[in-house]
Write a structure and sequence with these properties.
Layout lengths: L5 H10 L14 E5 L2 E4 H43 L3 H8 L9 H11 L8 H31 L20 E3 L6 E7 L4 H17 L3 E7 L8 H13 L3 H10 L6 H10 L4 H10 L3 H13 L7 E4 L2 E4 L4 H13 L8
Parallel strand pairs: 4-5
Antiparallel strand pairs: 1-2, 3-5, 4-6, 6-7
Length: 342
């Protein structure tokens, strides 16, 4: 009997539409019975929806990586044919021979940034490895730049589209250009998560680089393993109630190792909040339902760890570098009205 594939169901769940299927796959079709209890397909799909979204995102990334390799190989072949050389000779001329030698300043910088992890080894001892690392990095950068040049020369269109997740902003704190921005980023984060703190660097770069093209919405996703994360989220909501969310938000990430109740109250004073009103808010927890809603909504769309970002509905997980955000945002801005597939 024909069956709807797992990826089809995943994509349908991601896009919020029903998959094309036979009657047996209808939402009200039974998938199991336990005594008098009938479990329907719609219940099952809702149960595993976060996992299916995760699977579909992984599938897309695998497809995209493979497609990028195929496009790069084809561009090199076409350009090599046009020049009357082999792809290897073309790569040597346009990539390898244009790299240069890593400067002493670059080598010193890498050494200084990683000195704590080098176990007391001197610069001279690790210099060959640093040079090799920098050469590999420059090779990748030059190759990417050359492929971009070839894409402009040999018309390249890509029909592969990422899975999209419908995610609400839910009236949560935001900064940037507001609803008129062509790109909306919804972030789920945890104030006690070290990866979330690291991601703040990339987020700040994004906001500075894209200005009125981006809207950032912050939603709470305190993890159970972080005992101070939930109180910090509640404190941030209390600060938001007094119009000082982002100032307080920065204080929390800037003092991630000190999130006791006394410290939370101290940060309120630092950013100029009404201390008595803040203390009452912290004790009463009036935003419990709001934070619970953030967690619920995040879980429904596949958030299992933090940070997680949805860029116009495209999910990226973890403390990604600025370049990853830039890649997705630039793709969105290049689409009509900032909407993929438009």
């Amino acid at each position: 009997m024909r069956r709807t594939s797992i990826t089809a169901i995943a994509l349908a769940a991601t896009l919020g539409v029903a998959p094309l299927a036979l009657a047996a796959d209808a939402p009200d079709a039974p998938v199991a019975t336990v005594g008098s209890r009938t479990i329907k397909r719609a219940e099952l799909e809702e149960k595993v929806r976060p996992k299916m979204i995760e699977i579909e995102n992984e599938r897309y990334e695998a497809l995209k990586d493979g497609l990028d390799e195929m496009i790069s190989d084809e561009l090199l072949k076409q350009e090599a044919t046009a020049r009357g050389v082999s792809p290897d000779d073309l790569t040597k001329k346009e990539v390898d021979e244009k790299l240069g030698i890593p400067s002493d300043a670059d080598i010193q910088k890498v050494y200084d940034e990683n000195k704590a992890q080098l176990g007391g080894q001197t610069l001279e001892q690790v210099k060959p490895r640093i040079v090799q690392y920098l050469q590999q990095q420059k090779t990748e950068e030059r190759r990417s730049a050359f492929i971009a040049e070839l894409k402009a020369k040999h018309k390249t269109t890509i029909a592969l589209r990422p899975p999209l997740v419908k995610i609400e902003t839910a009236g949560r704190p935001e900064r940037g250009a507001g609803a008129k921005a062509p790109v909306t980023i919804v972030e789920f984060s945890d104030y006690q998560c070290p990866f979330c703190k690291k991601a703040e660097e990339s987020v700040d770069k994004v906001m500075k680089a894209y200005g009125d093209k981006v809207r950032l919405v912050f939603r709470d996703f305190p993890l159970p393993m972080h005992p101070n994360a939930r109180p910090a989220s509640e404190a941030a909501s209390c600060a938001n109630d007094q119009g000082k969310f982002w100032e307080y938000h920065a204080k929390l990430f800037g003092n991630q190792g000190a999130l006791s109740e006394d410290n939370l109250k101290g940060y309120a004073k630092d950013v100029g909040l009404d201390e008595a009103k803040f203390a009452k808010c912290l004790a009463d927890k009036p935003f419990k339902a709001v934070i619970d809603k953030d967690i619920e909504d995040g879980s429904k769309v596949g958030v299992t760890c933090t940070p997680a970002f949805f860029i116009n509905g495209r999910m990226i997980s973890g403390a990604q570098p600025f370049e990853k955000f830039k890649e997705v945002i630039d793709e969105e801005l290049a689409s009509k009205d900032g909407k993929p597939g438009a």
